[in-house]
Automatic annotation (TrEMBL):
Gene Ontology biological process terms from the UniProt entry: protein lipoylation
A GO term for molecular function: lipoyltransferase activity
UniProt domain BPL/LPL catalytic: residue ranges: 38-154
Gene Ontology CC entries for this record: cytoplasm
Pathway: Protein modification; protein lipoylation via exogenous pathway; protein N(6)-(lipoyl)lysine from lipoate: step 2/2
Family designation: Belongs to the LplA family.
Organism in which the protein naturally occurs: Polarella glacialis
Protein's name in the database: BPL/LPL catalytic domain-containing protein
Taxonomic lineage of the native organism: Eukaryota, Sar, Alveolata, Dinophyceae, Suessiales
Pfam family, one: LplA-B_cat
Highest taxon, organism lineage: Eukaryota
UniProt feature coiled coil, ranges: none
Amino acid sequence: HFAVGATAAGGPARIICSDVKDIVFHFAVEEYLMQVAKVSGPVMYLWRPAPVVTIGRHQNPWKECVLSQLESDGVGLVRRRTGGGAIYQDPGCSVFTFISPSGHFNIDRNLEIIIGSLRRLGIGAEKKGRNDLTFEGNGKKISGSAFKHAPDRG
């Protein structure tokens, strides 16, 4: 699925949605969008993975996971290019990736897009801490964020 709109700066804004569940495929698409694609306006890439644990780039899988249990449960294990802790994801998790042209990277704007989308679905959300999104009222975490800057991107 693919949608195009206009931004205030005049560049096209793109939303790409994928039904593919293979996380390695999605990491490859993200890498392509960051390193190769000509990005003249913001891109939002949305996808959902098959059951998988992703670990940060500096984590030791033998310390973070019970590998035999992952294997017996049919859960994959993949290393992210970003840092952070181990994360379990499955088709119930929506993953969003923002790619911006050089000089236009804005974490707060990106998080506000997600907060606005959740509110339109009737879910009150707010930014807490560094880059987490939580439910309004009880403060329970909805989403964490990881960021990577490419040399020619914002």
